[in-house]
Design a protein that fits this description.
2 copies of one chain form a homodimer. In chain A, helix 5 packs across helix 7. Chain A has 248 residues and is an alpha+beta fold. In chain A, 42% of the residues lie in helices and 18% in strands. Chain A binds a DNA duplex (30 and 30 nucleotides) through helix 7.
Chain lengths: 248, 248
DNA sequence: CGCCTAGTTGACCAGGTTCAACAACGGTGG
DNA sequence: CCACCGTTGTTGAACCTGGTCAACTAGGCG
């Protein structure tokens, strides 16, 4: 886990997520602040127990949503950082499509699903916010389809790193000089549809071209402009409105 | 276009989509029935004009959501059939991530976006239904990520055909003997992240193994069980609850 | 008839995979 | 303190899936 001094609570994260679509009124804000939450710690590589009575939000650390294929192999379909609430989708009575796993040691907040569901039914702003979240995550998945389906290996990896850098900038509210990204090369491979060996070679190529340094979970991007260019990256799909993203 | 005698109206389609998450009360049903709608015809290969004042639903024919990449090439990220309302997501004031294009001649229903937005703000059932739709489409996009990222060419094509067959079955309310799928091999290629030449070879292989006949837009599946098996297909992610899908 | 689109085929090529071995590192237990 | 182990990253060589290019066929339609 990486965050500095201050530790956000589960209620903070929920209130932040729900107000992204527009300010909440006092009643909703109070209801969210009153939700009884519980925290748990999870070690890297552990699956998040899927308990349909609770929704988790990510307070600190990294999580991915993944699928194991019958043919063998794993595909990571989504990556989440502190402050994300990917699991909100499970408020709907749809079977879970994804399993979630900790990519780093992490801290999760658990909220009783039924209470959130009640909130969603009562408040227009909250249902709108939820819709917005799910809608954005659908857009990200579609960008991943395009990334994996139609880009070369080097572009794929560059594109993913661009996305993660932008989202970290947004989460911190300002452009970062360097990033802590606790993914292994195997994780990158499973997220980009490549083999770990090839991810390794691609990273060397990116390093050789002075575009990216990625070592031991530490990412730095000496030339953001050129990286964006070769990745074909356009951050619009992330909808990080308001937050100026990365250095231009 | 393919549907037989009866022609659903835009209001029919909306009411059907919105009641998938649970029965609508009389007030909502009436409000939907009262929405003023307009129909337009669109020729194959034409983009659907993106007018943020209107939401389109697909009354007849096929449509895809796609992206053009800066590196060149097109990726189809979603495919839609009659009765689908993919564009509902644009009720949110988020920039459109996808462009939509007719894969066949088709008939669209246009609904004033603001009226739908009002409905969404007033009705819990409708907001829930919308969330459900968007959530399912996110799940489908994630399955596509896994399909393109981690499956061989033959599995990818087989998987896509399985998905389309299931969705057509569901749209018609019962398993079909054969399917009309007006996609070219180039369309299949852009949806699966392959080249058209390779899609051609894969289709020959599938035909050679007596698993799939696909010619001139006509699909038949002599051995559904084996096709599902080699595709690694599991229809759960489509959430076509209630409709028994395809022949087992 | 000529044109355009969709499908088909062959030859060649390259991007990426696979396998295997090894290096670097940190953690753990004796 | 060191030996051992597991994990992650790195390298090389062989291989192969799938891409590219180019030519050709078959229909459909003005």
């Amino acid at each position: 886990m990486q965050s500095g001094g201050y530790l956000p609570t589960t209620n903070d994260v929920l209130s932040n997520v729900f107000s992204r679509a527009g300010a909440l009124d006092d009643k909703d804000a109070a209801a969210i602040a009153r939700l009884p939450c519980r925290e748990i710690l999870l070690k890297r590589e552990n699956d998040i127990p899927s308990d349909s009575d609770y929704i988790f939000v990510l307070l600190d650390g990294w999580v991915c949503g993944y699928k194991l294929l019958s043919a063998g192999g794993r595909q990571i379909c989504s990556i989440h950082i502190h402050g994300d609430a990917p699991h909100l989708r499970s408020l709907l009575p749809l079977d879970a499509d994804l399993d979630y796993r900790a990519l780093s040691d992490c801290r999760l907040g658990l909220v009783p699903a039924q209470l959130l569901r009640d909130l969603f039914h009562r408040s227009v702003m909250i249902s709108r916010a939820l819709l917005r979240e799910v809608s954005i995550s659908a857009g990200i998945a579609e960008e991943w389809v395009a990334n994996i389906g139609r880009r070369r290996a080097i572009m794929r990896v560059a594109h993913l790193l661009c996305e993660l850098a932008c989202r970290l900038d947004a989460a911190h509210g300002k452009p970062q000089k360097a990033y802590i990204i606790p993914l292994t090369q195997a994780d990158l491979a499973d997220a980009t549809g490549l083999s770990t060996v090839h991810v390794n070679r691609v990273l060397q190529e990116l390093r050789g071209r002075r575009l990216v340094e990625f070592n031991g979970g530490h990412l730095s991007i000496p030339d953001w402009g050129r990286l964006v260019e070769i990745a074909g990256f356009d951050q619009k799909y992330l909808h990080l409105d308001g937050v100026r993203c990365c250095t231009l």
